[in-house]
Design a protein that fits this description.
six-stranded mixed beta sheet, elongated, Cytidine Deaminase, domain 2, 20 strands, six-stranded antiparallel beta sheet, alpha+beta, Rossmann fold
Length: 443
């Protein structure tokens, strides 16, 4: 039986920056406009109905554009579609330049996300890989005046464009009808539907590859517009899939090339799952907090001492010294921890520790818990509120320097944070300890 095709799932959250129109006025002038927020449903419906009836067709003309053949006429009266369009200044075009027909559509956010997925996130795939695109739209059921904000019909237009421009992409539409798109109350059932869809696409890979399925399946989220309720619900609800984040910093800007006047795709950044949960690293030299500076400097000193006294690495295959291999035999990785406590006089005290992975049923001890025990041994009157920070540094080149506390250590650290909410965990982006992450402990 042949193995199933690898799969990549892009979850794209729609908002009011997803659809732009190329329009032409009575003088033949072309310009780029977008539907005003309250008219997204009606403009989307105008396009979707015309495409469904076949009175116009989409002809892909660029990476995120398509022309309409023939152009689609616009109503120009007081209630006409032409009055529901905005230019780059946010104004409704005046009567002299009011558009009379739509000649093309542009979807720069989805286009940029797809370019990023195809260009970077799928480059490590040696075999075939199916690309799935889940388009998530939302719209209020009531009150009546907010129904026009719905992106449901725009999603249908985008699906038609994807079918014409990227026939290899498997497209699924998911719409959230809600009492109010700006609240979270009815988001969980909607996210459950998305989660089931993703799990269904993952299932054949899990059955075939077993514990190696993760090498053949990936998820990315493109949530650069839309309501905060939708964005947060998708991000948190799909956390279990460890999704990448396709971030478009220019998503709110008009996508016009200042030189040529044509469409300009937003630049894209890819953030891994760890970046979704933590802020970017900071320069150690920029730390202003005394505790944080002390902890980083003390860890750098501990790293130097440890590496000088232990010149052979635990995983060095060339080493035959049993004593060197004994302490890290199970995982063959070395992790340093440095716990900082406050003395009675207010000074800071560093407590050094290292992980132990002796080959015994109870031989594993994480560096963080080892540091806590060492601190209590050095300060028998130690109180939890006197423990102010812990730094963790992995010395394993394969893992990298950044290695946060495991689940068991997090439980211990939460007990400290219960009485000291200022307690923080410091990890590192480089072995030199010049780039740091500072995070509180969830409690």
């Amino acid at each position: 039986m042949s193995p199933p095709t690898d799969a990549f799932v892009l979850v794209h959250v729609l908002g009011h920056r997803d659809l732009y129109l190329w329009v032409r006025d009575a003088q033949g002038t072309l310009s780029l406009v977008k539907p005003s927020a309250p008219s997204h449903f009606s403009i989307g419906k105008l396009l979707a109905d015309a495409l469904r009836r076949g009175t116009t067709r989409l002809r892909p003309s660029a990476s995120a554009e398509a022309s309409l053949d023939p152009p689609l006429p616009l109503k120009a009266g007081a209630q006409g579609h032409a009055r529901k369009l905005e230019n780059a200044q946010g104004d409704v075009p005046n009567a002299g330049s009011r558009p009379t027909e739509v000649v093309g559509i542009a979807m720069p956010l989805l286009g940029a996300a797809l370019a990023e997925v195809r260009g970077r996130l799928m480059t490590d795939r040696e075999g075939e890989c199916e690309l799935h695109c889940l388009l998530l739209s939302a719209g209020a059921v009531r009150p009546v005046q907010t129904r026009g904000h719905s992106t449901e019909r725009v999603a249908a237009v985008m699906a038609t464009w994807l079918g014409a421009a990227h026939p290899d992409i498997h497209v699924t539409l998911h719409h959230r009808d809600t009492e109010d798109p700006f609240v979270f109350s009815d988001a969980p059932p909607f996210i459950d539907t998305i989660d089931r869809d993703i799990r269904a696409k993952r299932a054949p890979l899990v059955r075939h590859y077993g514990d190696g399925w993760a090498n053949h399946f990936r998820v990315a989220i493109s949530a650069n517009t839309g309501t905060l309720a939708s964005i947060v619900a998708v991000k948190e609800g799909l956390r279990g899939h460890r999704p990448e984040l396709v971030h478009l910093p220019d998503a709110s800007r008009w996508p016009i090339d200042p030189e040529g006047g044509g469409l300009r795709l937003s630049r894209a950044l890819t953030l891994n799952p760890d970046h979704l949960a933590q802020q970017p690293p900071r320069s150690a030299g920029d730390l202003e907090d005394d505790v944080e500076r002390f902890t980083v400097e003390a860890m750098a000193q501990w790293r130097d001492v440890f590496c000088e006294r232990r010149p052979l690495r635990a995983g060095d295959a060339s080493s035959t010294d049993k004593e060197y291999q004994f302490w890290f035999r199970k995982g063959q990785k070395e992790v340093l921890a440095l716990l900082v406590t406050r003395a009675a006089d207010g000074g800071l005290i560093p407590h050094r520790a290292v992980n132990l992975e002796v080959s015994l049923p109870t031989g594993t001890l994480c560096a963080e818990r080892n540091a806590i025990g060492s601190a209590l041994a050095a300060q028998p009157d130690l109180r939890r509120q006197d423990i102010v920070a812990v730094a963790v540094l992995s010395l394993d080149a394969k893992i990298g320097p950044r290695l946060g506390p495991c689940g068991a250590c997090q439980e211990w650290l939460r007990k400290i944070a219960e009485v000291n909410p200022d307690f923080r965990v410091i990890t590192f982006d480089d072995f030199a300890c010049t780039k740091v992450y500072v995070n509180p402990v969830a409690h």
